[in-house]
User: Fold these one by one.
Assistant:
Number 1:
Amino acid sequence: MKLQQVAAVAALVAVALAATTASAVTFEVSNTASSTAGGQRFDQAFGLDYSKQVLSDASTFIWAIFNQPSEADRRPVDTVTLVVEDIGERIAFTIGNGIHLGAQYVGGISGDVKTEVSGVLYHEAVHVWQWGLQDYDVHPWIFEGIADYVRLKADYVPGHWVAAGGGDKWDKGYDVTARFLDYCDSLKAGFVAEMNGKLRDGYSDDYFVQILGKSVEQLWNDYKAKYSQG
Ligand SMILES: [Zn+2]
């Protein structure tokens, strides 16, 4: 082959490899609550195929937020599963690579089902991909904060969240911590990606100092001061 042809073939191989990498994760979804009102609403207003698409989009989005362009950077996950089931009044939870979504919760959504459920799935998908969950029981707030930070960046903020600057302490978790992490990321783009990478070894307050040069207490005070002026 001429050099140009070799280059063309090499480019094609590169494209094929990239496609393989992107599709290396399988998304499996099922609904074991199809006989319930909530399960039926899920099938009608969201559906299994749409779930796969949302989980795939969410994973790509999370890898971008975490600055994990290649598979080698990520948690080694081949399959992400979603089961819609009767879990009482709980909204959702994730164990390992398995997301569990509450049928009763879906049945009770008063807003747009696609928007609300997508937001929950983005949050739960973060728990599949984030590092450091061995430390979850001791420092749940940082992991829930990062999960809601991704939901915030994906523009799936539900109506009940605090506004930016809201909340009493950085380690409240969820929306309060997500807003605070968004502030930290505004000080240094990629803060959350760096934090997630460090969490691989478990959580430490010192990560805030290492990444931003200030203690988490100082950052929180700066953050509250910024929003108390308006
Ligand atoms: Zn969570």
Number 2:
Amino acid sequence: MEPKKKTQHPEATGKNKEESVVISRVRINIRCRLCFMVDGYLPEERKCRHCGAELYRIDAV
Ligand SMILES: [Zn+2]
């Protein structure tokens, strides 16, 4: 019986490029104009988490 060679690991290459992705997820604290709740929102979030009203970036606190 010949032992199968397991020397090829496709995941072993390109290891060093995994740490610069997470940084862009920055939350901004925005105060809702309707219910006045302040919460942290991602850039793509446009609605208030509490009442569903529209959020404005200029209301960031
Ligand atoms: Zn609200």
